[in-house]
Specification:
By secondary structure, this protein is mainly alpha-helical. It has a single domain (14-173), classed as Four Helix Bundle (Hemerythrin (Met), subunit A). It is built from 7 helices and 2 strands. It has helices at 14-35, 40-44, 54-72, 83-87, 102-122, 125-128, 146-170; strands at 131-135, 141-145. Helix 1 (14-35) packs parallel to helix 7. The protein starts with 13 loop residues before the first helix and ends in a 20-residue tail after the last helix.
């Protein structure tokens, strides 16, 4: 199956983006609180994961978010909440270790999460219908529906947070509930 490139991508709304931004921030807070209970050595221990260690995986999520947010910052709407992202250096590689200390990585994570929340609130339905031109890490150009790229962005976070929760579990610590459903309000009993 492929999506029709000419269609407006109805799979997400502004409300969806805002809810994913809330989920992102909530899960990152849980991950970092749990990881904070481990030693520097435990965080850096090679665990044969895609990005090696817990700290490597958490760095990758920050790298990925930075790359995508810098692309999103080129949207013609020039969302002001992405101004701090525009000032960040571009990561050089997907496995780049931006910060070896959890506290420094957490500070960047919180800055990104705050920007994501503000940016999600700034988006309009018209913004979601835009086609974004960007270059990937190899310099190859692409033009993709912005709404689909937002799904990619949030899916990438969720995918690697799942890996991080597995690594934390293997290290003997439990992140607790991670499902989006935990954030949904109860609207009554059947």
């Amino acid at each position: 199956m492929t999506l029709d490139a000419g269609s407006e991508n109805p799979m997400i709304t502004r409300e969806f983006v805002e809810s994913m931004a809330v989920y992102n921030e909530w899960m990152n807070a849980k991950l970092y609180a749990t990881a904070g209970g481990l030693s520097v050595d435990e965080l850096a221990l090679e665990r044969n994961a895609f990005f090696g260690s817990i700290i490597g995986t958490l760095n990758h999520i920050v790298v990925g978010d930075t790359i995508w947010l810098k692309r999103f910052a080129t949207h013609p709407a020039r969302h002001p909440s992405l101004d701090p992202i525009r000032e960040l250096p571009s990561p050089a590689a997907l496995n780049q270790c931006l910060f070896s200390k959890l506290g420094e990585l957490l500070a960047r994570r919180k800055m990104l999460d705050a920007a994501i929340r503000k940016w999600a609130a700034e988006l309009s339905e018209a913004d979601l219908r835009h086609v974004l031109s960007y270059k990937n890490m190899k310099g190859l150009g692409a033009r993709k529906p912005f709404a689909g790229l937002l799904v990619t962005f949030f899916n990438h976070q969720t995918h690697h947070r799942g890996q991080a929760t597995t690594l934390l579990s293997q290290a003997g610590v439990d992140v607790g509930v991670t499902d989006f459903v935990a954030l949904l309000p109860d609207v009554g009993r059947a």
